[in-house]
Amino acid sequence: MATTTTVAVERFPIAGRFTISRGARTEAVVVMVTLANGGSVGRGECVPYARYGETVEGVVAAIETMRGAVERGLDRKGLQEAMPAGAARNAIDCALWDLDAKRSGVPAHVSAGIDRLRPVATAYTISLGLPSEMGEAVAKARDRPILKIKLGAPEGDHERIAAVRAAAPDATLIADANEGWTEENLDRHLSACAEAGFALIEQPVPAAQDEMLRGRPRRVPLCADESVHDRKGLDRLGGLYDAVNIKLDKTGGLTEAFALANAAEQAGFALMIGCMLGTSLAMAPALLLAPRARFVDLDGPLLLARDRENGLRYDGSLVYPPPPALWG
């Protein structure tokens, strides 16, 4: 029986404003792929990301070019060979995982060799702002065990680091500079994070300039985000980073994400499982990688004014496995 494909662009308002070093947003724009076959329906969501040269229109067009092949039965392995890594492939790949689970009755995590999924604690993101604003935001979220702190502004990060630690003295803190630090301020900010007891620093400098990290003394582990997308970019990261942030929109889906996780662990990297700003449908496949991760950052739905129906269950920062009506 042939598969039919539907592609939809959806918009979800953000609760307030989401700000990082590259700018601010008030809504999340996602692309959803729906695959239907014989009464079974599989779905996948992706988030086009301008930092990687993606647009909503371009991602939709890339998905449409694969429509014929998918409807003729292209499988996940063939998809890996037919499309490059990125958001478009992610949506199709995750929809294929979901469709396979719905047609077979075998949950996606079981097909992936995982006996059982359990609730995990996710980081909760604090947007970039004035030090006083970020301190206030952290104080409101101080009951959450893990906070991810957006940094990387031209000025004031030293004060931001101090303010957030003072507001949440017991929380595990992750710094995410989103490539915003420079050769001139890097050592100062690394030292400030160490003194404040941060557990991890994510992508402190631009990916194209991260060789400056090689051999540099640091007391806090560094995690690659923009510097790694899939296995092709992994080899050069030795000596630069201690961990890698795996995001399905970068890897081009769950299939490559598993392969990257295997390769990264074999190379001695710790794993962080992250996300773009999307709905529960984007988070659900990534939860299959969470049991292997040192840090989980799947808080996208917590930052939205509304999530999609049948979304993930969050209890504070604890996120539960996806219900069958959502995915997998």
| Known CATH architecture of the largest domain | Alpha-Beta Barrel
Structural class: alpha/beta
Which topology of the largest domain does CATH recognise? TIM Barrel
Unreliable residue runs: none
Beta-strand percentage range: 15-25%
Radius of gyration: 19 Å
Helix content: 25-40%
N-end to C-end Cα span: 21 Å
Strand order in the sheet with the most strands: 5-6-7-8-9-10-11-12
Task: Tell me the number of helical segments per DSSP (H or I, 4 or more residues long).
Answer: 11
Shape: globular
Q: What's the count of strands?
A: 14
What value does the average pLDDT take? 96
Helix-strand topology string: EEEHHHHHEEHEHEHEEEHHEHEEE
CATH class of the largest domain: Alpha Beta
Oligomer, anyone? single chain
Supply the number of structural domains: 2
Write out the CATH superfamily name of the largest domain: Enolase-like C-terminal domain
**What does the main sheet amount to?**
8 strands, parallel
Search tags:
328 residues; alpha/beta; Enolase-like, domain 1; TIM Barrel; 2 domains; 8-stranded parallel sheet; 3-stranded antiparallel sheet; 14 strands
Task: Write a brief structural summary.
This protein has 328 residues and is of the alpha/beta class.
Model description:
The structure is a single chain. This protein has helices at 56-65, 67-71, 76-82, 87-104, 108-111, 131-140, 157-167, 186-195, 248-251, 254-266, 280-286; strands at residues 4-20, 23-37, 40-46, 120-121, 124-126, 146-150, 172-176, 200-202, 222-224, 243-246, 270-273, 295-296, 314-315, 318-319. It is of the alpha/beta class. The protein folds into two domains: 4-109, Enolase-like, domain 1; 120-319, TIM Barrel. An eight-stranded parallel sheet has the order 5-6-7-8-9-10-11-12. A hairpin with a 2-residue loop joins strand 13 and strand 14 (318-319). Helix 6 runs parallel beside helix 7 (157-167). The longest helix is centred in the N-terminal third of the chain and has 18 residues, at 87-104. The model has no long low-confidence stretch (mean pLDDT 96).
